[in-house]
Amino acid sequence: MNNLDVIVVGAGPAGLLAAGRAAELGAKVLILEKMRLPGRKLLITGKGRCNITNDAAISEFISHVYPNGRFLRNAFSQFYSKDILELLEKYGVESVLERGGRYFPASDKSKDVLNALLKWINEKGVEIATDARVEKLIVENKIVKGVLVNGQPLYAKKVILATGGKSYPATGSTGDGYNLVAEHGHKVAKPIPALVPLETEGDVAQRLQGLNLKNVKAIVWVNGKKMGEDFGEMIFTHFGLSGPIILTLSRIVVAEFQKQNKVEISIDLKPALDDQKLDLRLQRDLNEHGKKRLGNIFSYWLPSSMIPVFLDLLNIDSEKECHQVSAVERKQIRNLLKNLRFTVSNFRSFKEAIITAGGVITDEISPKTMESKLISGLYFAGEMIDLDAETGGYNLQIAYSTGWLAGNSCAK
């Protein structure tokens, strides 16, 4: 293919938006995708449902992005959540708003989102070459000229890198883009797993494997100091802890764990009750059921699968009648309900991380265009930029907005 205006490397959401927008403005665009099919990672987002975006206002949205959400202000002002929803609707995808401001396709199928984007770019004349591995950037005098793909040079006026991070490498995200630009002097903040499940010491999580808890509070403790908390849903696994609030807090955990600090997670099972109210509740239940065995009364306070584990941790005789429970034992019960604590022993690998933290530092990218400040004609989009966000559709919106802005900028 000759006379290309734009080469986009990567056919994920950022690459598709970049290519579609550039073509919409009249550019001749080719997407190079190293996998056999485009959009592999998009298909598995939101557990296959695809959390398209979030309805948060820009200022609030930015507060959920690290390490420098303000970098996105210009991108969001040009293409934001309503814009991606309107684009998808135009190509047949209705969306529904769920709790936490999360938008999903009404069909609950991520495939519908991908198909809509592919239909759009096809209509705009974008071509996609799959099984196309980009090995090098062709750069002369700090100006990008094209790429080396499968050993062959391919030239274009502009190149957009949207190669993704390193999470879920089976989908093609293996950090290729970082190496491509590091060769030409770009600084890359060390990529680490983000939104990642945590491994814990001991067998408590393992014994609770599969138990899903809602409306609980998780707190991160680093060397005994409280460093963050989140409220919502979590799940116990065969290796430790996962679920939305654990994934959100994992950013703090991974960073501190790598500094070899002692990191713990405490779970408050009764966040709606302070210590005093919870103590009154325990007293009331124990008094009302004074003749019952203690092991039986726990069903008022905990899911059934937690009870044997809880009793083992308390080391209180479960056969004891409720009226025999001492004030000291009641305090033990209360403390454990408010502070079920786990020591973090590790975090899971990129294979299980939803996204990647780290990437090309934003100081070297123009926030107004997504163009490299070091190499003229080179643009960045999506997860390979050093930006990552909490769960809730935020990361996909970053991909769409940076992709759209890159495509818009390089076609003008």
CATH homologous group name of the largest domain: FAD/NAD(P)-binding domain
Helix content: 25-40%
Number of helices: 14
CATH third-level topology of the largest domain: FAD/NAD(P)-binding domain
Q: Briefly note the structural class of the backbone.
A: alpha+beta
The whole-angstrom Rg is 25 Å
Cα end-to-end separation:
21 Å
- Extended strand count: 20
Q: Low-confidence stretches at least 5 residues in length (pLDDT < 50)?
A: none
Strand content: 25-35%
Work out the count of structural domains.
2
Major beta-sheet overview: 7 strands, mixed
- 3D shape: elongated
Protein topology:
Layout: E1 4-9, H1 13-24, E2 29-32, H2 40-44, E3 53-54, H3 58-63, E4 65-66, H4 73-78, H5 81-90, E5 95-98, E6 102-105, H6 110-123, E7 127-129, E8 134-140, E9 143-149, E10 152-161, H7 176-182, E11 188-194, E12 198-200, H8 204-207, E13 212-222, E14 225-236, E15 240-242, H9 244-258, E16 263-268, H10 275-288, H11 294-297, H12 307-314, H13 327-338, E17 340-347, E18 355-360, E19 378-380, E20 388-389, H14 394-411
Parallel strand pairs: 1-2, 1-10, 2-7, 10-19
Antiparallel strand pairs: 3-6, 4-20, 5-6, 8-9, 9-10, 11-18, 12-15, 12-17, 13-14, 13-16, 14-15, 16-17
